[in-house]
């Protein structure tokens, strides 16, 4: 039995693991002629302090702008590698909750692709692994890409 994926959702951060997840998601989307949706969650900033940023905060606007640039770069790479449809999503909040409670229900993908890790060891202890959480809570197939 061959499984055909028509909507592939890729969670991206700035880690090496998500770069590898990108390559796998692009390959799957291209081979299945699927829509690729790339999502990035802007969570709690660890380089400033641990307060959530207000909607009009300059840091939040800058983070959103930088995320947009990153996702547009990946969108162009996906097109260059033969993917014909790419959507971009930027959300605010903890990545694991954004993915499972907001993006997966709204995008309704057939497959979610995530990197095996993307956080520091301390972040994993404090807030938990995104990939582990998505595997446990996703209603659809999840591919965890290891480095």
From TrEMBL:
Residues 4-146 form the UspA domain. The keyword Plastid does not apply. Its main location: cytoplasm. Keywords: Cytoplasm. One of its GO terms (cellular component) is cytoplasm. Gene3D superfamilies: HUPs. SUPFAM superfamilies: Adenine nucleotide alpha hydrolases-like. The keyword Transferase does not apply. It is found in: Cytoplasm. Belongs to the universal stress protein A family. This is Universal stress protein. The lineage of its organism: Bacteria, Bacillati, Bacillota, Desulfuribacillia, Desulfuribacillales.
């Amino acid at each position: 039995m061959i499984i055909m994926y028509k909507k592939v959702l890729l969670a991206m951060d700035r880690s090496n693991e998500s770069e590898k997840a990108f390559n796998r998601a692009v390959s799957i989307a291209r081979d299945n002629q699927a829509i690729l949706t790339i999502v990035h969650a802007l969570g709690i900033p660890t380089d400033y302090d641990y307060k959530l940023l207000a909607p009009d905060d300059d840091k939040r606007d800058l983070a959103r702008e930088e995320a947009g640039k990153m996702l547009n770069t990946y969108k162009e790479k996906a097109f260059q590698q033969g993917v014909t449809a790419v959507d971009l999503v930027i959300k605010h909040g903890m990545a694991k909750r954004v993915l499972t409670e907001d993006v997966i229900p709204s995008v309704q993908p057939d497959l979610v692709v995530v990197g095996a890790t993307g956080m520091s060891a301390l972040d994993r202890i404090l807030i938990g692994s995104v990939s582990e959480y998505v595997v446990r809570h996703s209603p659809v197939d999840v591919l965890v890409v290891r480095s």
